[in-house]
Design brief:
By secondary structure, the protein is of the alpha+beta class. The protein is built from three helices and four strands, in the order ααββββα. A two-stranded antiparallel sheet has the order 1-2. It has a two-stranded antiparallel sheet with strand order 3-4. Strand 1 and strand 2 form a beta hairpin. The site of zinc ion (ZN) has 7 residues, from loops.
């Protein structure tokens, strides 16, 4: 009977260890996905000077003073 309990404990321990290993293995898989998409480096974020929303710098519009905006309407409206 004791042998069965020890066997069950070992099986449960190994199962938990495998599940934990799979969970910690997830981030590298996501990193591999990002690398496959060509987005290994995240784009720097900027805040819209009008509404404050954050967006990737390549998607932002900029005025003559270099302030960033989320789009043309807010660039025209100016900083708030
Ligand atoms: Zn905005």
């Amino acid at each position: 009977m004791l042998r069965v309990l020890i066997l069950v404990a070992v099986v449960v321990g190994v199962a938990l260890w495998l599940l934990k290993g799979r969970r910690t293995g997830a981030p590298p898989a996501n990193r591999a996905d990002a690398a496959r998409k060509g987005g290994a480096e995240p784009a720097p974020m900027v805040a819209c000077a009008h509404c404050g929303v954050h967006l990737p710098r390549p998607d932002a519009s900029f005025d003559a003073e270099g302030r960033s905006y989320c789009g043309e309407p807010h660039r025209v409206a100016g900083p708030r």
